[in-house]
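If you are new to this repository, start here. Below is one unmodified record pulled from the training split, so you can see the exact layout before writing a loader.
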Amino acid sequence: MARWQPDAPGRLAAAALELFEERGYENTTVIEIAERAGLTKSTFFRHFPDKREVLFGGGALSDLLAEGIASAPPTAGPLDAVMGALDALGRTFFSADRREFSRRRQAVLDANTELREREALKRIGLTASMVEALGLRGVPDRTARVAAKLGALVWEIAYDQWIEADNDEDFGSLARQALAEVRAIGAVR
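And here is the target side for that same chain:
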């Protein structure tokens, strides 16, 4: 693969995933990832601080969530604004063409404690991004934290279903179903 080809971060992520599957996360080096992608080690480090981050998309998800919440109609409640952001993620990030990569990525994460811990920290950061975005909409802090944590739960439920081998529903639909379930449980007395 020529070095001038576009999407270096995507190429690096694909190469890393292949190598992690073949050799395991612990047995793969940054140099090997860069070589597999047809790039240099310095190119790798221009895009990612370390080999863990290559599977976590940098700040793209945080930015998409914040944009989705900011673009929700002014009349949308906090949880509806979060749902709008999850819908946007489904259209732009969790699209059908990324499903297989995401399944494979999850299998690599499941096989490695360090990567599972990093995933948990990323999710905490994404929840914080939602809290901040809701705060910018004027949502009180406690309400924003509750809505963001419920949104994170909805996301987790939808994502787990979305990557199932026998599932072909789109992420947004699964997130709306999960939100309906969360709301129904909240209505139970």
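Two things worth knowing about this chain: The mean pLDDT is 92. The CA atoms of residues 150 and 182 lie 8 Å apart.
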